[in-house]
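Chapter review. Work through the record for aldehyde oxygenase (deformylating) before attempting the end-of-chapter questions.
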Amino acid sequence: MTNASSPEYLRQFVEETDWYNEIVLGPIIPGDAWKRLPRPIQSWLRNYIGGTAVYFITGLLWCFYIYYWKRNVYLPKDRDAIPSNKAMFLQIIVTMKAMPLYSGLPTISEYMVESGWTRCYSSIGEVGWLAHAVYLMIYLVLVEFGIYWMHRELHDIKPLYKWLHAKHHIYNKQNTLSPFAGLAFHPLDGILQAVSHVIALFLVPTHFLSHMALLFCEAVWTANVHDCIHGKIWPIMGAGYHTIHHTTYRHNYGHYTIWMDWMFGTLQDPEEEFIKAK
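Structure tokens for aldehyde oxygenase (deformylating):
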């Protein structure tokens, strides 16, 4: 790999984020006015616009799909399970209050990458596809481990739960959970759960674009796991598992998969719960 701390190499990251800014800010801010903004402001504004767009597009499409287009498939007998428009609107309000601070996390990670503080690489060609796949798997394991324990401690440490995480757990029934609840957190809570993405940059070589894509994919993933529809795709920590988390508060803290809950004894299977209910 090229000397990752050299100014010439770090310039690649700057040019890459300049390109992202051009794509997002160019069509919105007239002329080149956005180029005169301080670089951190450019980054934050692009992340805010991008994060808001991903949140609304994902939430609206997913709600339309499960509550209207495929309602007879997913909710054929229980129309009361569909969240009210008021409940979803309140979730949107909570999310949009937090979004300015959420947008600070990728802004900070970009600054650290551009400054050469992390182990990021610019192009997959620098390491090869096999090494990239291995690094990505390690990155995802670190993120999964970090989110599991941060989420669990937000429950176990009572002041953290009371002042931060409880805001998200007011949504504790099927008719109050929706794709729009996925990012409806106290802003510090949301950042603490996502910070593993940034910490991993210091521990394992990481493709910069993959890191940014995975950060923004959190909006897509969290929308999916709050729709209360059990996808039954093992070992994915889907909505069936996460709905149990919102009703028992003591199980299924994991993020992408069930492995951490299985390893640390907090897994509760929605299939077993269904059998008990019968």
